[in-house]
Amino acid sequence: MNNSPITTSIFDLFKVGPGPSSSHTIGPMKAAFDFLKRLEQLPESTIQTAGSIQVYLYGSLSATGRGHGTDRALIAGLLGWQPESTDPAALLALLKDPTVTYPVQVGERAFHLGVETIHFERKKYDSPYANTVVFKLMDGENGLYEEEYYSIGGGFILRKGEEPADQSAISVPYPYQTMKELKAQLKIHNLTLEELMLANETALTGRSVKQISSRIDLILDFMHKAVRRGLRHTGTLPGSIKLRRKAPLLFQQARGLVQSSDSFLIFLNSYCLAASEENAAGGIVVTAPTSGASGVIPGLTYLAKHHFHYDKATLRAGMWAAAAIGFLVKHNASISGAEMGCMGEIGTASAMGAAFLTYCAGKPIEAVEAAAEIGIEHHLGMTCDPIGGYVQIPCIERNAMGAVKAYNAFLLATAGTPANQKISLDAVIKVMKATGRDMSTKYKETSEAGLALSATEC
Fold first, then answer.
1. CA 349 to CA 213: how far, in whole Å?
2. Can you give 156-191 as a three-state secondary structure string?
3. Cβ distance 264 to 316 under 8 Å?
4. Residues 324, 330, 333, 335: is their CA dihedral positive or negative?
5. What residue stretches are annotated with the Serine dehydratase beta chain domain (predicted)?
6. Any bridge partners for residue 285, and if so which?
7. Residue 130: its pLDDT value, please?
8. What's the N-to-C CA distance of the chain in angstroms?
9. Tens of pLDDT along 53-87?
């Protein structure tokens, strides 16, 4: 476990960017952009000597990178694109024609990048993380300069050799590492969860409460735009699976069954599928906490807004509860499918969604913890086995299932006395970490086992 207090911003957890994968698309794009900025700092003589830029992918990035659009994301980052401002249509157009190259200007030198720039390496590579990318500035066969990056889930990246920020030097008014410590801070200082999280966020970012609240509203708006786009768009998703979109059909079905008890679940399913199908199509989504799980929270918040009629303040409060759970999992285990399997992505999203619903309903922190614990507990051991490396099967339906489990976790946690819950959130996160460590790498975003092997039947 990390021994420093949690100092992650809510806006690092909920990030806007193109699908289909935060670890395979957003992370590599950010790494490529960072490498570009470092190239620009090199002596002009080094740049003039160089003949090419080469990129090498290892681990899960290599195994499923083509299906996840990692090659396009890398070219985009080297072109200077940033996730939040990327045009999804322009991103999807990159590398469509294998004869086209893209000029990357570094100083007075232009490097022309194309399909031959990206190398999907299948050999073992000594790396501390499953998703590794190495950028090299080359003079023929000779390397002039290189950087190695790790995409660790949710769009977070690390650069080899870079000293991590000294988290102990970052001061927040109410430090915590675990749910036990978080509850203690709430009790000692007589604070609501939202008050504590806001105080820490202002200390971390320097933003005012008004600025933070406006940004959360904007994040929710991005989520709900993805849902609305997904409810409108029909047809077939990109890729060799030729999977047809299902969200619009489900939405129409729900509207036709409005008097039926089933309509509520069908509406929720349609919202989650809508955002997740937009992610699979490479559209703009919000990591929640990852792009692969970007249908759960958007679907639940859309439901809360349009069916429960919660106002903006209530939705924001719920987002803080969701963030608290996401922080705890990221800090004490991982939200990466390549590290934890799908329990790290959908499992975390489901727990966050359960916490969101529980806090919006005005329940105490004990109920929020119980709901989140139930959400994770019933995703333990879930593999990440995407067919063909695409974030489509089983990923899209898993978002809907994760949201339904989140709603049920909310019901279970609020049906009795939360204090009677036998397993704590801290305990289940420890189990989650151990399960991810024990899980075979074949089941962690490599498409080498499980449902991925049924690709021939699609």
1. 21
2. CEEECCCCCCCHHHCCCCCCCCCHHHHHHHHHHHCC
3. no
4. positive
5. 9-161
6. 17
7. 85
8. 41
9. 999 999 989 988 888 899 999 999 999 999 999 99
Q: Which residues of the chain have pLDDT under 50?
A: none
With CA atoms as reference, report the closest residue to 69 among 285, 287, 226, 281.
Answer: 281
* Cβ pair 203, 250 in contact under 8 A: no
Of 391, 388, 429, the residue nearest 177 (C-alpha): 429
- Per-residue pLDDT of 82-106, as tens digits, reads 999 999 999 999 999 999 999 999 9
Distance CA 189, CA 196 (A): 9
Stretch(es) of the chain classified as CATH 3.30.1330.90: 19-159
Other C-beta atoms within 10 Å of 278: how many?
Answer: 30
Paired tokens of 429:
């996160």
What angle is formed at CA 23 by the lines to CA 280 and CA 431, rounded to 5 degrees?
Answer: 105
CATH 3.30.1330.90 for domain 19-159: yes
Give residue 81's pLDDT.
97
